[in-house]
Amino acid sequence: MPVPASGTARLLAGGHGGPGALRPMVDTVLDALAHGAADRGGPLPAGGPAAVARRIHGAARPLVPDEGEGPHQALRTLVRALAHGAADPADPRCTAHLHCPPLAVATAADLAVSALNPSLDSWDQAPAACELEALTCRALAELVHPHGPAPDALVTTGGTESNQLALLLAREAAAGRPLRIVRGGNAHHSIDRAAWLLGLPAPRALPTPTGVLDPATLHTALGRLPDTPTLVVATAGTTDTGAIDPLSDIADVCDHHTATLHIDAAYGAPLLFSDTHSKRLHGLDRARTVALDLHKLGWQPVAAGLLAVPDGAALAALTHHADYLNADDDTHAGIPDLLGRSLRTTRRPDILKIAVTLRALGRRGLGDLVDHVCAAAQHLADLIEARPGLELHARPTISTVLFRPTGARPADVAALRRRLLHRGAAVLGRAATPEGLWLKATVLNPHTQPDDLRGLLELVEGNTTP
Length: 466
Hints:
Layout: H1 18-40, H2 48-60, H3 71-84, H4 104-116, H5 127-144, E1 152-156, H6 159-173, E2 180-184, H7 190-197, E3 204-206, H8 215-223, E4 230-235, H9 247-256, E5 260-264, E6 289-293, E7 305-309, H10 323-326, H11 328-332, H12 351-385, E8 390-392, E9 400-405, H13 410-422, E10 429-433, E11 436-442, H14 450-462
Parallel strand pairs: 2-3, 2-4, 4-5, 5-6
Antiparallel strand pairs: 1-7, 6-7, 8-9, 9-11, 10-11
EC number: 4.1.1.86
Cofactor: pyridoxal 5'-phosphate
Pfam families: Pyridoxal_deC (PF00282)
């Protein structure tokens, strides 16, 4: 048997010697992260794409040298370069997207997953992880569907995969009859993409001039459709404004027309953790399928998505067989069959970081974080309304705030956003509404303070002109 190259046998993260090999490398990574953040000095690197590309090329080449430079030097160089060139969601001026700063406890838990490297495509690759996933998925599904007969959830990579699974389950439930999909104009782009991917007709998009799906408009549209299986997609937390459709009224309309309801709550579902804000999701439990992401308003490292159902029996359509992974005699002998838990085969146990976070903070602890960012968004709206040079689109529903310089044209708003990005000063998103183009601030940092919000607005006002 060939002998491993000198030193490589001590580089494995698992086994009895794994923690000893990993510990000094983790210290190197943490040091490189700190230096990279100091190099960056702000929410993102200055200079734009060309400057970032030059720095990465300088740090990364040669990527495949004839002789390696060793783990610590490689980590110091590339982790520092990555941190220097990062858009850091932990900086209160980085508010463009539903891109949260992850909790330290969740990040630490994720390290254990990488070290152990379980794969959730068969029980013999992940004995404990598969059981932890089953327990945690059921617990979260019960939060979404407290009155369901047997709530369950599947772990996904995010809202896009969850929405795709929801459409797939609806297609299979239609039992060969053509499935129609009806959505609001405010729905996530992944709905149409999933329909295309699954060979379904393009969804019918209903206008949402107020930002939410109107139940009366939906009632009229469903009444004009032929008698065929129909999936209605509602949204609880749009990506542009954070708006929440009137879920209970929409569920009533779906019941009246015998339509199936899917709710994309990738953004809004964690409001369930909050005693204050959970009432905004009244009617969520009436959906046949619900998408939620905990790497948005749940402070998890990507990826941490789920698709919840009120009855796990609805997932039977995903049953799949591969003899080397779930042989019938193994299943009959009591070995869990995992292939029906995802469309993916190799799958890391992203559930660990979620389970650790839930145990560490509890529902109320997570609810406190939700309450803080929602309150911070309201305060940001107050500050905007108090400044004559800025205009607010609307009061925030969750933690997304749209605003712009008063009277600014769309081209001016777009140029202002790019100017802030190029200078490394702030990361703001953009959102188009019937009233024009707006800057978008999505407050997801639970450490955000009033001074941070005032500083963000001062940056915008100070960069209004080139």
